[in-house]
Design goal:
The complex is a heterodimer of chains A (about 100) and B (about 500).
Chain A (H helix, E strand, L loop, with lengths): L5 H10 L9 H15 L34 H5 L5 E2 L2 E2 L7
Antiparallel strand pairs in A: 1-2
Helix pairs in contact in A: 1-2
Chain B lengths: L8 H9 L5 H13 L7 E4 L1 H17 L9 E5 L26 H8 L3 E6 L38 H8 L5 E6 L5 H7 L2 E4 L19 E6 L2 H11 L29 E5 L9 H16 L3 E5 L7 H16 L20 H12 L2 H13 L5 H24 L4 E5 L16 H5 L6 H6 L3 E8 L5 E7 L5 H15 L10
Parallel strand pairs in B: 2-3, 2-4, 7-8, 7-9
Antiparallel strand pairs in B: 1-3, 4-6, 5-6, 5-10, 9-11, 10-11
Helix pairs in contact in B: 2-3, 5-6, 7-15, 9-11, 9-12
Classes of the chains: A mainly alpha (about 100), B alpha/beta (about 500).
Chain lengths: ~100, ~500
Amino acid sequence: MSGIDTDTARRVAKLARIRVAEEDLPGLAADLSKILGFMDELGAVDVDGVEPMTSVTPMRLKRREDVVTDGDRRDAVLANAPDARAGFFAVPKVVE
Amino acid sequence: MSDLTDLTIAEARDALRRGETSAAALTAACLEAIDGADVLGAVAHKTPELAMERAAAADARLKAGDAPAMCGIPIGVKDLFCTEGVASQAASRILEGFRPPYESTVTAQLRDAGAVMLGKLNMDEFAMGSSNETSAYGNVVNPWRRAGDDTPLTPGGSSGGSAAAVAARLCLAATGTDTGGSIRQPAAFTGTVGVKPTYGRCSRWGIVAFASSLDQAGPMTRSVRDAAIMLGAMAGHDARDSTSADIPVPDFEAMLTGDIRGRRIGIPAQYRMDGMPEEIEALWQQGAEMLRDAGAEIVDISLPHTKYALPAYYVIAPAEASSNLARYDGVRYGHRAALEAGEGITEMYEKTRAEGFGAEVQRRVMIGTYVLSAGFYDAYYNRARKVRTLIRRDFETVFADGVDAILTPATPSAAFGLGDMGGEDPVAMYLNDIFTVPVNMAGLPGVSVPAGRDAQGLPLGLQIIGQPWGEGDMLNVAHVIERAAGPVSRPEKWW
């Protein structure tokens, strides 16, 4: 199952939105391959008919009234932003 | 009274209530100890003014006779907990400058109980690591050293600052978090007690998320009694964490009777690893003897899927991390990379995350991204979740067979040298958590309790795994080992 080449490493870095310099890709691919090789041990387990775990503690999620419980804190929400202007988060221009 | 910083929570609580000392005096003593221990790197952000303010408030409560157990107790808080107005950056560059406008539920409960926060403690970045070497603040050094050898050792990780601070008497106790062993392994490396509660016992609200289905907060202390007291203050249902359990929190301290007669303690065959040091094996047997001497019945058990816990963990934890850490994009908080002309929002994300995340965090985010990507989701992620079901089933089976608790080593070795592990092979570092990871995978409570020393004088810990919501009984077993093993001496002060 395992084995990540430089192209795959480049694609994964892109998907993860982490810039990786071209010259660092082979090292990254090797690291990721080692980790994935370790995971391949899972192939030896018989998982036929086994349900994938969704909740480690069997419990019903609680429901609450569908009402507003919080809000009106614009300035607190923006206080940590690297760039906030006129009550908004500011980002570079997005042109698709 | 002897050195105030040497008091346990229980001793300090009793002394405070008798008026023999004050929260202000205790806090001042800890702050002085912290200022003299910068070389340990355990405290990332000091909050002395806030601490003295809270100490004064605690003293007022004590005077008024309204003093819960934690009132006036100076504690350290792992940097992973959001603390209102106080830097909280998960030891990551990407959260540089972040000051949360809110307080995590666990630290709010401790604060409301009168505990005095001294500062924020160092850790592995985003709690990803087992040696506290991935922190943006730099390494933490273990206050313990090998006899006659000043090689700097790791305090373990990820709660390495918490463990070092508690062992070095910088605080009476500290909060930690444990996703795969991040409380128990550092506790074992520093001769302290560390509790990973049942998943859902403590609210995760306001704790920076790593792997949400595995993360739990817990206490790190110098005695089992202290762990019981502090866990009581941290635990409980919280409407803001839908996975926190709405069940009563018992008086854990009252359950430390020392009576374990007739309890059945399981010894899992699969935890006897190839190449395990003789000392660890001997310690494990001694622990079983201690429990047998106290009237427990020792039984051999089988947890057949144990060896798959670690590889399954290294699929599930990075998968959840890659999703949780997607929020660090340079828009709402923390670091944002400087852009060059013509660069747009995608470049902003990519450069921000490359600059903000350290190497290990980047690796795990990318592994997580890979195992969740189209074409691999079933082969890795779904298979790991199925294996997780089997791991939990192993434990359920032995508990259903009448086993009350399980005894294992806490770690495969004593503390190792900083820089000694994981350089070439990231997987070598992961093996540190081989005895602790299955507990998180199954959502069970586990405690690491000091049980002896190795030939070089370093502390070693044993792990007791309890039944779901069975922290009280589990701590009672740990209490028996603690009493039989005798008190851990404090590390000789060299800093």
